[in-house]
């Protein structure tokens, strides 16, 4: 399911003293089945951008196309229900939205809300809970007896049980420990690779954006500053710095080493292993010149 | 070195039939020190923090703060005044309608005279660099700014110890840097004792000492350099490693003859550069 933004502008508090231009003429294409990360400083328009994808916000100008649903500025009577069934949204701290008596009931809530029968909803809930790796022995317990990381998985299972074609993640790992973080990110990467789910992730972590994404969108002042593969985006260090964004840690490290060697170039390397290879090459390469 | 906190054989469980979440914990904190407590989610870090200002009382063992037992009901308010806590969520700890109201709230609770409050308010906001926002409403502030206001509210009470319970984990990278800088200045310049409970190992490597918790037990204690010398145990208990350590290990695995001392990126760069110059 492709997602396309054409000249989308969004103004908050239009015609009030608090009027604020949050998105400024954004055009963007998110291919079906891809992993796209949205990076940007706080207030750069990241969250505003993704909230248009499932119709939580409507554009002040422009058009958004999500699969066969078209949302146009000013148009009335749009089919937002079917849009929200297709596009799941995992908000920040989604565990705050758990409310049911048991975990399984909580996960069933989403699909049943979209008119799925109870027996089918239970089937889907069980599938989703398995996907997020929550042991069956816990399914009939209260979600409030779980740890923070487990509660977040239940909340994510609730989104997946609706069987969306695309999922928006707003800082999905905030507040988790490193192990919990790797598990959640690994889950979404495998859903994208195996089930061809389209993933759109808002993140402050340049490392996650660099390692996981097919496409990175760097936002500044309500506009995409750079759109491209992690390689395309992260070699533009000056532009990123101007937008208040860092490089992935691996590249920051390589830059320090390159600076020491008096070299101005930038090496795109996103995993520890890639960076270590680059260091080895650099050591050998520099030695060859001497 | 003067001990400001002394924890002896501390055990705690939340309900009778449940296992101990803290198991015979022993440690001391030196006055003026920056101590980090690291461990996975559910390792008992936050429960431990709540024991240090008497929000939770030990079921076995003792906790002494500035020589006072937390189990002594008559001393509990003196202890809470000595130990300020900054929690995780900036939005849950803002009570005032403006920044200055919020900072004054704690002082009002402690019944400080008005002229003392006015003086300390100015000083506290200055220390966290929020003086320009004294009249601002909370929703006009970033997460990092809100946490700085929370810190000002604590500083105004002139505590001996400040405990940060994952105080930076909900902030963006910039907010995180702001808070670390603020608290480091309080530690170095005002000699405030800092205990930081954190997942952020890049923050933890800057502290004077580290405690590592796993499943309610304190499994390691030492300077960051000692702790990160051998990394297998840390890996086993589900902790990540600081970037320089991961990089150092990866390079050693590829045959680069590095020592096991570098803790900061700059040190690793230095070592690699020396290595290359000697080749």
From TrEMBL, chain B:
<protein>
    <submittedName>
        <fullName>Energy-coupling factor ABC transporter ATP-binding protein</fullName>
    </submittedName>
</protein>
<comment type="similarity">
    <text>Belongs to the ABC transporter superfamily.</text>
</comment>
<dbReference type="InterPro" id="IPR015856">
    <property type="entry name" value="ABC_transpr_CbiO/EcfA_su"/>
</dbReference>
<keyword id="KW-1003">Cell membrane</keyword>
<keyword id="KW-1278">Translocase</keyword>
<dbReference type="InterPro" id="IPR003439">
    <property type="entry name" value="ABC_transporter-like_ATP-bd"/>
</dbReference>
<dbReference type="GO" id="GO:0015087">
    <property type="term" value="F:cobalt ion transmembrane transporter activity"/>
</dbReference>
<dbReference type="Pfam" id="PF00005">
    <property type="entry name" value="ABC_tran"/>
</dbReference>
<dbReference type="GO" id="GO:0042626">
    <property type="term" value="F:ATPase-coupled transmembrane transporter activity"/>
</dbReference>
<dbReference type="InterPro" id="IPR030947">
    <property type="entry name" value="EcfA_1"/>
</dbReference>
<keyword id="KW-0813">Transport</keyword>
<keyword id="KW-0067">ATP-binding</keyword>
<dbReference type="InterPro" id="IPR017871">
    <property type="entry name" value="ABC_transporter-like_CS"/>
</dbReference>
<dbReference type="InterPro" id="IPR003593">
    <property type="entry name" value="AAA+_ATPase"/>
</dbReference>
<dbReference type="GO" id="GO:0016887">
    <property type="term" value="F:ATP hydrolysis activity"/>
</dbReference>
<dbReference type="GO" id="GO:0005524">
    <property type="term" value="F:ATP binding"/>
</dbReference>
<keyword id="KW-0547">Nucleotide-binding</keyword>
<keyword id="KW-0472">Membrane</keyword>
<feature type="domain" description="ABC transporter">
    <location>
        <begin position="5"/>
        <end position="240"/>
    </location>
</feature>
<dbReference type="GO" id="GO:0043190">
    <property type="term" value="C:ATP-binding cassette (ABC) transporter complex"/>
</dbReference>
<dbReference type="InterPro" id="IPR027417">
    <property type="entry name" value="P-loop_NTPase"/>
</dbReference>
<dbReference type="InterPro" id="IPR050095">
    <property type="entry name" value="ECF_ABC_transporter_ATP-bd"/>
</dbReference>
